[in-house]
Amino acid sequence: METFWEYAKAFLTGGLICALGQILVDKTKLTPARILTGYVVAGVILGAVGLYEPVKKWAGAGATVPIIGFGNLLAQGVRKAVGESGLLGAFTGAFTAAAGGICAAVFFSSVVALIFKPKEKK
What we know:
Blueprint: H1 2-27, H2 32-48, H3 52-59, H4 61-64, H5 67-85, H6 89-115
Helix pairs in contact: 2-5, 5-6
């Protein structure tokens, strides 16, 4: 039964994050690109000040999978790299922390692009 509650918390948290994004799309003049950028920046800020960690522990994948979790990952990487390398870590930490996910996204999108033939919109 505990597994059910872990899934429920992840679903509710991720759903709320996505619902907030949809409300912003529907009720404001913000473009989806600006909303996504805002989510990444919010994740960086919340991660930098330590407010995102309790949410991540409580919600699990519901907090780490949405794009706000990517911003938090960048903040964690920078914090760790600055602690290890000093000021240089501020420039390299985000790339090191997110390299695995970015490489996977590039690899799988390349595979899909090879399998399916894109068509122009008419």
